[in-house]
Write a structure and sequence with these properties.
elongated; alpha+beta; 5 helices; eight-stranded antiparallel beta sheet
């Protein structure tokens, strides 16, 4: 992923926040010589710099058939919004852009078919999402149809070998431009725009509070 220095993020707590915000992840690999992508809800765990994702495909999905041994890309999507040059103080010198946050996670997937492991996975996914809804429904691993249902999916886990975080929120603009664009997004009031405005202000506050970078004066 092309990531200019101003937009690179190294704090994995930001990855935590992206996954909590939206754990519906894009899984990219190759199949029969061509790219293939699946969009899946995944479970996420992190201990220090060690990151693991787990999920499952429907068995007819061909992505699982030859994925082992490949370097796989997971894409975690964050908030994004269009930024108009008209929101900047120096609008005549600017161009339109798009602000966004995204994570790319690279690693090698391990596929599994064990029914107990699959039952654990589905139970945990269901519990996580049902609890978030305030629902009392739970996956019944003892039900008669469960064994048949579990045979219709294929599980996988992926340990991250490399993580790239890109948070593009006008860090390369003067403070007045950031403030103007954030204020405009706030006025528009869309959910995504409000998230982007909050990220812009967060990073601007950190920039203004940080010691000056000597390279900025070269």
């Amino acid at each position: 992923m092309y990531t200019p220095r101003a937009f690179a993020e190294t704090d994995l707590a930001e990855l935590d926040r992206l996954v909590v915000r939206d754990a519906f992840v894009t899984v990219v690999s190759t199949h029969e010589g061509a790219p293939i992508a699946s969009h899946l809800p995944l479970l996420y765990a992190r201990a220090g710099r060690q990151v693991r994702f787990r999920g499952h495909w429907a068995r007819p999905n061909p992505q699982w058939q030859d994925i082992e041994g490949q370097q796989v890309l997971l894409i975690v999507h964050g908030p994004h919004a269009y930024i108009s040059p008209g929101w900047y103080v120096d609008a005549e010198r600017q161009v339109p852009t798009w602000n966004y946050a995204v994570a790319h996670i690279y690693g090698r997937a391990r596929v599994f078919h064990d029914e107990e492991l699959l039952a654990d996975l589905v139970s945990e996914l269901a519990l996580k999402n049902e609890t978030g809804l305030g629902s009392r429904w739970r996956f019944d691993r003892a039900a008669e149809h469960t064994r048949r249902d579990l045979r219709s999916i294929v599980g996988f886990s992926l340990d991250a070998d490399r993580i790239e975080l890109k948070f593009k929120f006008n860090q390369n603009h003067p403070a007045a431009n950031v403030q103007g664009a954030a204020a405009a997004l706030q006025r528009l009031g869309s959910e995504q725009g409000l998230e982007v405005a909050a990220q812009m202000r967060k990073r601007l506050d950190a920039r203004l509070a940080a010691p000056a970078d000597p390279e900025d004066h070269r």
